[in-house]
Amino acid sequence: MGFSLSVRFVVLCLVLLAPLAVQAQSQRGGGVIGVTAAVNPNAIGATPLSEPRLLEVGVHVFANERIVTTAGGQAQMLFIDESAFTVGPNSEVVLDEFVFDPDTGTGKLALTAAKGVFRFVGGKISKNTPVTLKTPTAVIGIRGGIALVNVQPDGATRATFLFGDQMTVVAGGVTQIATRPGFAITAAASDQAPSPPARAAPAQLNAALISLERSAPPPADDGDQQGGNQQQQVNGQEQANDQQQDEQQQGQDDQQQEQDGQAQAQGDQSEQGNQQQQIPTDQDIAQTSIGDQSSRRAPRLIAWRRLSVGPPPGASGDGSAPGETANEVQQNHNLQQNLAPSATDLSGRIKRSASRLVGTADQSSTNNIAFSGGLLQFGSFSVPLGSNTLKFPVSGTGVTAVASAASTASPNGGFTGNVFLSSNFQFAFLEGIETANTTTRIVAFAGKPSGSIPTSGVSYYALQDDFGLDSPIPFLRFPDTSGITVAQAESAADAAIYWDVSGSSTAQRSFEFRTISINGQGLTQKSAISFGGGAVLLDSQGRPFIKGRAIGSARQNLAGLPTVTDSDLSSADDALGNDFFGPNGSYFLLESASVNANDAVTTNNGATRFGPGGSPLTTSFFPNNVAVPAISTLGARSTRTMGGYLGGAYQSEVSGALSTTTMLFGFNNDSFDVEIKTNAAANKVRGSFKFVNAFGNGPTFQVIFGDKDVAAFGDGSNTTGDSVFIDNDNIAAGDQDGAGSVTINAAAQNWSTVAFVSVSEASEFSSGFIPSGVSVCDCKYLNWGFWGGRITATGSSSEIIHMANYVAGEIAGIAAINAVQGTATYTGHAIGTVFNGTQVYQAIGGLSATVNFDNASASTLNITNFDGANYSGTGLGITSSGVRHRFMGSVAGAGRTGSYNGSFMSGGGDVAAEMGGEFKVSGGGYSAVGIFAAKK
Fold first, then answer.
1. In terms of Cα–Cα distance, which of 366, 363, 336 is closest to 350?
2. Helix (H, G, I), strand (E, B) or coil at 210
3. Taking a C-beta distance cutoff of 8 angstroms, is the pair 874, 900 a contact?
């Protein structure tokens, strides 16, 4: 027999103790926080003020109690907020802190695990505040779900997300987030970043689950045990008496509920008499209805039963377990079917990708099929597609393996792969490979159309990898992304919609996605950036859809040209014209199509790719990225006019071949070279970048970005589109539509695709890019990021810019800066583009400056470990610059010389709270140009 457990008794104990646990402190040194729901022998509990005790079923557990199990020990605890916690063999954990308000369902739960295997099932607390489990190497946060944690004797921790909202793992100052069930994160050491989420190996997962649920020999039937059983009966009788008194006061309806509860109890006793008792899992316990904790009325219990997924070892040939009849097998199968997810009237689209170089060729009616009327029932999704059927099994929420071709169907036959099902059963997406042609991939989604969308605030999303193009970076394709990894997990927020349009008559619902990846340093580096921006509009029926544009670039060959892509962007609709699915617009799919103001597709030619070598225009391709909900935090939103600086490189291309590489710098070396305006009421951005050759003569370029809006920015017309304002750290814009948005020597150019996108934190960079000892500035007031794209000049030539930099902020006048006194120290980073011989790549280093506002000549500015070199400068001249100010100086190091220009940037009532600027160095066939950002 495994655990010996009366589920009814445990829940009755919990209801009795709940009102007391919130108020009273036990003599053991901590408040009562729950009861033991099930125990195997050799599980010990002790608080700092008590002697160790053998844990038994139904005994109280306390805050600050240490739970220790031996090789044969296990324990399951049910806390008063309805959360459940299982401790496996050879484990040790302390129940550090438990605070719970039953009236609001809020509180705090914290545990510390030294070693062992643990499983947590979230209750009321975790729905509002993440529960934390600290291990020797990591801090794990579990919000609204179930997680499995394995702590090795050396402290190495592996946490697996099983169900719910999300699980975070923090180690080495880095946070990884898992939102897809079955994905695990590993923290090998406390000073090392945790691994990105990866699908857990079934063998590892099963081994951990077995250790939590395996049976153990029953304890001896001695007098103590008998006494314990008698005590359970006494407690149960006392509760029954209390129940009877309450029922007499509640009337006939509650008497009927009492009779139902007695009938349920009789059914439980009958089942226990006919079957060998099984170990209840945390899921079983979590499914028990605790009821109103402010009442002493006995809760009505949900009967639990272990379901057999397949015949266990030693099962008979008919599929039954030993001692189980064929009829019982069928009943068990029927029960599983009835408990499977179900939903009706799901609609969506199925696409077919015959090549990861092209994708789904969306204009093909056979490769891109919209549907409606899908049915999710009995563990399977199905929908008729003309004379064909789309069918695949769905066994539960999260990512699950699609079964063999015999249980799948598509217009082109069977397939295998994976399917994601949301926990509310309102959205599913499929990634499959056709059985008959293993080079062909299937991408499909099906969902319940959203009945409404938010009218305020922001929604965050995680864009899933593009399965059809085999690309981790949205709207870029293989081979441009080959060998490039993304720092942020696939479950991390990389897209957002700001919904509120109440602040202005021309306000837009801003949409943005962005992915930035720089892998490695120096001559082995690969890099990519992708940005998509636009607005969520409403069609004639009031249904939301996304309309915008995507721009990206990637560098594989440091001695050649980067690849640039340009694409229309829209959300994909179902057969009925719906684009958003699930509650409050929780899910959608992005594709490359141009739509009009009523969501009708005008062109569907795919994304344009300009590759290095050969013809500038190569074969179009068709991205598909599913968006699922993610968690992030909305920052401050301000209407601002910012000035700043820029740096980078532009590479001239003629007929697809590299001509020259030119380092670029601000036109006037002052803060008017970069101007960015944001409007919080309209959720719009506009900007202007002006630059020239950093080390010689050449043309003057200007790019004008973002929206035109008379009320917001004073423009003579209004447009809604390629600008994004989520918060002060998340702004972006593409070049404005129409002639004159890009000029060379004041002459309008034929065509362009250029954009800028802000960077908010270092976690957006891939591992291996930031050198040891360098910290990216978590600046609060200034804004910095990347920009680039492709400017088409006359004839067959163009200028390509890959990951240039900018920095901008609110800049005070010279009088305000002259009024600042004393000395201030600034720390941050310098980032830019390196041209080393024939190689072009990105580099980042540290920046430190000591500014003497009383005697600027005594100031210093140093750049450290930038591409392995250090640069230092003394003296910092502060002068007027129009209505603003700027400072300047020179630097030298590693046999190179250079200069910098910058400004102090205002915030929080301090006119010199932060500093930003541009720098350049050159010498010995080497040059670098970039920006710096630092704070006090």
1. 366
2. helix
3. no
| Angle of the 7-23 helix axis to the 252-274 helix axis, nearest 10 | 130
**Cα angle 20-22-24, degrees, rounded to a multiple of 5:** 55
Task: Calculate ∠ Cα 493-497-498, nearest 5°.
Answer: 125
Q: In angstroms, rounded to a whole number, what is the distance separating the alpha carbons of residues 933 and 847?
A: 8
CA–CA separation, 637 and 39 (whole Å) = 53
Orientation of helix 7-23 relative to helix 223-250, angle to 10°: 70
Q: Which H or E run contains 329?
A: helix 326-339
Query: For residues 594 and 602, is the Cβ–Cβ distance under 8 A?
Result: yes
**What does the H/E/C string look like for 369-438?**
EEEEEEEEECCEEEEEECCEEEEEECCCCEEEEECCHHHCECCCCCEEEEEEECCCCCEEEEEEEECCCC
Distance CA 554, CA 545 (A): 28
| 223-250 vs 252-274: helix crossing angle, rounded to 10 | 150
CA-based nearest residue to 425, from 374, 461, 389, 463: 374
Whether the CA torsion 843, 849, 853, 855 is positive or negative: it is: negative
HEC string for 578-634: CCCECCCCCEEEEECCEECCCCCEEECCCEEEECCCCCCEEEEEECEEEEEEECCCC
- pTM comes to 0.68
- DSSP letters, 282-324, are HHHHHTS----TTS-SPPPPPP--PPPSSPPTT--TTSPPTT-
Q: How far apart are CA 465 and CA 518, in angstroms?
A: 17
State whether residue 711 is helix, strand or coil: helix
3-class secondary structure, 829 = strand
The gap between the terminal CA atoms of the chain, to the nearest Å, is 65
Asked whether the beta carbons of 13 and 33 are under 8 A apart, the reply is: no
b/e string for 217-254 if b means 16 or more Cβ within 10 A? eebeeeeeeeebeeebeeebeebeebbeeebeeeeeee
Q: Measured between alpha carbons, how far is 77 from 99 in angstroms, rounded to an integer?
A: 16
Query: Residue 811 carries which side chain, given as an amino acid letter?
Result: I
User: DSSP letter string over 639-677?
Assistant: -EEEEEEEEEEEEEEETTEEEEEEEEEESSSSTTSEEEE
Under-70 pLDDT residues of the chain: 1-31, 37-38, 41-42, 46-52, 56-58, 213-341, 395-396, 611-618, 720-721, 737-739, 750-751, 760-764, 766-767, 794-796
Distance CA(50)–CA(671), nearest Å, equals: 67
Structure tokens at 877: 């001249």
Which region holds residue 875: left if phi is over 0, alpha if psi is between -120 and 50, else beta? left
Give the model's pLDDT for residue 58: 66
What does the pLDDT look like over 461-477, one tens digit per residue?
Answer: 999 999 999 999 999 99
Q: How far is residue 386's CA from residue 370's CA, in Å, rounded to a whole number? A: 11
Contacts of 842 (CB under 8 A, 6+ apart): 518, 525, 527, 769, 803, 831, 832, 833, 834
Of 302, 321, 301, whose CA–CA distance to 311 is shortest?
321
Secondary structure letter of residue 355 according to DSSP: B
Measuring CA to CA, which residue among 434, 443, 515, 511 is closest to residue 481?
515
Q: Would you state the pLDDT for residue 874?
A: 87
Cβ-contact 39, 55 below 8 angstroms? yes
3-state secondary structure of 116: strand
Q: CA of 514: how far to CAs of 228, 356, 620, 733, in Å?
A: 61, 21, 21, 11
pLDDT at position 909: 94
Residue 489's pLDDT is 74
Residue 261: CB partners within 8 Å, gap ≥ 6?
A: 298, 300, 301
